[in-house]
Target: Phosphopantetheine adenylyltransferase
Amino acid sequence: MLGFVLSASVVVFPGSFDPMTMGHVLVVKRALRIFSKVVVAVAINTNKETMFSIEERLLIVHNALKNMDNMISIESFGGLLSDYMRRNKRCVVIRGVRDANDFGYELQMSVINSELNDDLETVFIPTSLNHQYISSTFVKRIAAMGGDISKFVPYGVDVKIKKAFSAKKN
Ligand code: PNS
Model:
Protein backbone atom coordinates (compact mmCIF):
# COMPACT_ATOMS: atom_id res chain seq x y z
CA MET A 1 0.00 0.00 0.00
CA LEU A 2 1.51 3.32 -1.02
CA GLY A 3 1.65 5.68 1.91
CA PHE A 4 2.47 8.94 0.17
CA VAL A 5 2.60 10.61 -3.19
CA LEU A 6 5.97 10.64 -4.91
CA SER A 7 7.04 13.45 -7.11
CA ALA A 8 10.43 13.91 -8.66
CA SER A 9 12.18 16.27 -10.96
CA VAL A 10 15.42 14.31 -10.75
CA VAL A 11 15.34 10.82 -12.24
CA VAL A 12 17.93 8.07 -12.47
CA PHE A 13 18.76 6.27 -15.72
CA PRO A 14 20.66 3.12 -14.73
CA GLY A 15 22.41 0.82 -17.17
CA SER A 16 25.53 -1.04 -18.18
CA PHE A 17 26.22 1.42 -21.01
CA ASP A 18 28.75 -0.96 -22.57
CA PRO A 19 28.90 1.26 -24.56
CA MET A 20 26.33 4.06 -24.53
CA THR A 21 24.49 4.07 -27.89
CA MET A 22 22.44 6.71 -29.71
CA GLY A 23 19.39 4.87 -28.34
CA HIS A 24 20.51 5.66 -24.79
CA VAL A 25 21.20 9.30 -25.75
CA LEU A 26 17.67 9.56 -27.10
CA VAL A 27 16.21 8.21 -23.83
CA VAL A 28 18.11 10.91 -21.91
CA LYS A 29 16.86 13.62 -24.30
CA ARG A 30 13.26 12.44 -24.06
CA ALA A 31 13.43 12.19 -20.28
CA LEU A 32 14.65 15.80 -20.15
CA ARG A 33 11.41 16.88 -21.83
CA ILE A 34 9.58 15.60 -18.75
CA PHE A 35 12.06 15.88 -15.88
CA SER A 36 14.54 18.62 -15.06
CA LYS A 37 17.55 16.43 -14.36
CA VAL A 38 18.72 12.94 -15.34
CA VAL A 39 21.34 11.11 -13.30
CA VAL A 40 22.98 8.53 -15.55
CA ALA A 41 23.98 5.70 -13.20
CA VAL A 42 26.54 3.33 -14.71
CA ALA A 43 26.48 -0.12 -13.10
CA ILE A 44 29.91 -1.27 -11.94
CA ASN A 45 28.96 -4.93 -11.89
CA THR A 46 26.59 -6.10 -14.55
CA ASN A 47 25.40 -9.66 -15.15
CA LYS A 48 27.36 -9.65 -18.42
CA GLU A 49 31.09 -9.41 -18.96
CA THR A 50 31.70 -5.85 -20.15
CA MET A 51 33.89 -4.83 -23.05
CA PHE A 52 34.72 -1.50 -21.42
CA SER A 53 35.93 -0.91 -17.87
CA ILE A 54 33.79 1.21 -15.57
CA GLU A 55 36.19 4.14 -16.13
CA GLU A 56 35.89 3.80 -19.92
CA ARG A 57 32.09 3.52 -19.78
CA LEU A 58 31.88 6.63 -17.60
CA LEU A 59 34.12 8.54 -20.00
CA ILE A 60 32.03 7.49 -23.01
CA VAL A 61 28.83 8.63 -21.25
CA HIS A 62 30.51 11.89 -20.31
CA ASN A 63 31.59 12.57 -23.91
CA ALA A 64 28.22 11.53 -25.33
CA LEU A 65 26.26 13.91 -23.10
CA LYS A 66 28.71 16.82 -23.05
CA ASN A 67 26.21 19.25 -24.54
CA MET A 68 23.64 18.51 -21.81
CA ASP A 69 26.07 19.23 -18.98
CA ASN A 70 23.82 21.30 -16.72
CA MET A 71 20.85 18.92 -16.99
CA ILE A 72 22.59 15.64 -16.29
CA SER A 73 25.00 14.12 -13.86
CA ILE A 74 26.92 10.90 -14.18
CA GLU A 75 27.59 8.44 -11.39
CA SER A 76 28.58 4.82 -10.98
CA PHE A 77 26.96 2.35 -8.62
CA GLY A 78 27.69 -1.11 -7.29
CA GLY A 79 25.31 -3.68 -5.82
CA LEU A 80 21.56 -3.43 -6.05
CA LEU A 81 19.91 -0.52 -7.83
CA SER A 82 17.21 -0.44 -5.14
CA ASP A 83 19.88 0.13 -2.43
CA TYR A 84 21.67 2.78 -4.48
CA MET A 85 18.37 4.63 -4.91
CA ARG A 86 17.63 4.44 -1.19
CA ARG A 87 21.16 5.58 -0.24
CA ASN A 88 20.85 8.61 -2.53
CA LYS A 89 17.26 9.40 -1.54
CA ARG A 90 16.05 9.14 -5.12
CA CYS A 91 12.84 7.44 -6.08
CA VAL A 92 12.30 7.46 -9.86
CA VAL A 93 14.13 5.26 -12.32
CA ILE A 94 13.74 5.64 -16.07
CA ARG A 95 14.34 2.85 -18.55
CA GLY A 96 14.17 2.89 -22.33
CA VAL A 97 11.85 0.39 -23.98
CA ARG A 98 12.33 -0.59 -27.62
CA ASP A 99 9.75 -3.34 -28.10
CA ALA A 100 7.50 -5.88 -26.40
CA ASN A 101 10.44 -8.10 -25.47
CA ASP A 102 12.14 -5.23 -23.70
CA PHE A 103 8.90 -4.38 -21.99
CA GLY A 104 8.46 -7.90 -20.56
CA TYR A 105 11.93 -7.83 -19.04
CA GLU A 106 11.73 -4.23 -17.86
CA LEU A 107 8.37 -4.85 -16.22
CA GLN A 108 9.84 -7.77 -14.26
CA MET A 109 12.80 -5.62 -13.18
CA SER A 110 10.56 -2.77 -12.11
CA VAL A 111 8.32 -5.06 -10.04
CA ILE A 112 11.34 -6.68 -8.36
CA ASN A 113 12.93 -3.31 -7.71
CA SER A 114 9.80 -1.96 -6.09
CA GLU A 115 9.55 -5.11 -3.93
CA LEU A 116 13.11 -4.42 -2.78
CA ASN A 117 12.47 -0.72 -2.23
CA ASP A 118 8.86 0.35 -2.01
CA ASP A 119 9.72 4.01 -2.54
CA LEU A 120 10.96 3.20 -6.01
CA GLU A 121 8.98 3.89 -9.19
CA THR A 122 10.00 3.10 -12.77
CA VAL A 123 9.02 5.23 -15.75
CA PHE A 124 9.37 3.64 -19.18
CA ILE A 125 10.48 5.83 -22.07
CA PRO A 126 9.70 4.39 -25.50
CA THR A 127 12.36 4.73 -28.15
CA SER A 128 11.76 6.14 -31.64
CA LEU A 129 11.36 4.07 -34.80
CA ASN A 130 14.87 4.70 -36.07
CA HIS A 131 16.47 3.70 -32.77
CA GLN A 132 14.35 0.60 -32.27
CA TYR A 133 16.98 -1.98 -33.10
CA ILE A 134 20.07 -0.33 -31.70
CA SER A 135 21.57 -2.15 -28.75
CA SER A 136 25.03 -2.22 -27.20
CA THR A 137 25.16 -5.95 -27.99
CA PHE A 138 24.46 -5.48 -31.72
CA VAL A 139 26.85 -2.56 -31.94
CA LYS A 140 29.62 -4.76 -30.52
CA ARG A 141 28.72 -7.66 -32.83
CA ILE A 142 28.83 -5.45 -35.93
CA ALA A 143 32.10 -3.86 -34.83
CA ALA A 144 33.64 -7.30 -34.15
CA MET A 145 33.10 -8.12 -37.85
CA GLY A 146 34.52 -4.82 -39.03
CA GLY A 147 31.18 -3.11 -39.77
CA ASP A 148 30.59 0.63 -39.57
CA ILE A 149 28.83 1.50 -36.33
CA SER A 150 29.36 5.26 -36.41
CA LYS A 151 25.67 6.07 -36.84
CA PHE A 152 24.65 3.92 -33.87
CA VAL A 153 26.98 5.35 -31.24
CA PRO A 154 27.95 8.82 -30.01
CA TYR A 155 30.81 10.56 -31.83
CA GLY A 156 34.17 8.88 -31.28
CA VAL A 157 32.81 5.71 -29.65
CA ASP A 158 33.21 3.73 -32.88
CA VAL A 159 36.95 4.44 -32.81
CA LYS A 160 37.14 3.34 -29.14
CA ILE A 161 35.35 0.08 -29.93
CA LYS A 162 37.63 -0.62 -32.92
CA LYS A 163 40.67 -0.04 -30.68
CA ALA A 164 39.25 -2.32 -27.99
CA PHE A 165 38.78 -5.12 -30.57
CA SER A 166 42.25 -4.74 -32.05
CA ALA A 167 43.77 -4.76 -28.52
CA LYS A 168 41.92 -8.03 -27.84
CA LYS A 169 43.28 -9.62 -31.04
CA ASN A 170 46.89 -8.67 -30.22
O1 PNS B 1 21.93 -1.65 -19.61
P1 PNS B 1 21.41 -2.87 -18.91
O2 PNS B 1 22.44 -3.98 -18.94
O3 PNS B 1 20.07 -3.29 -19.42
O4 PNS B 1 21.22 -2.41 -17.39
C1 PNS B 1 20.77 -3.32 -16.42
C2 PNS B 1 20.97 -2.75 -15.01
C3 PNS B 1 22.43 -2.44 -14.77
C4 PNS B 1 20.13 -1.50 -14.84
C5 PNS B 1 20.45 -3.85 -14.03
O5 PNS B 1 21.11 -5.04 -14.30
C6 PNS B 1 20.69 -3.45 -12.58
O6 PNS B 1 19.93 -2.69 -12.04
N1 PNS B 1 21.76 -4.02 -11.97
C7 PNS B 1 22.08 -3.79 -10.58
C8 PNS B 1 21.71 -5.02 -9.74
C9 PNS B 1 20.21 -5.03 -9.46
O7 PNS B 1 19.71 -4.21 -8.75
N2 PNS B 1 19.50 -6.00 -10.07
C10 PNS B 1 18.05 -6.06 -9.94
C11 PNS B 1 17.57 -7.11 -9.01
S1 PNS B 1 18.06 -8.71 -9.51
Observations:
- The chain has a mean pLDDT of 91.
- Residues 14-16, 43, 46-47, 80-82, 112 surround 4'-phosphopantetheine (CB under 6 Å).
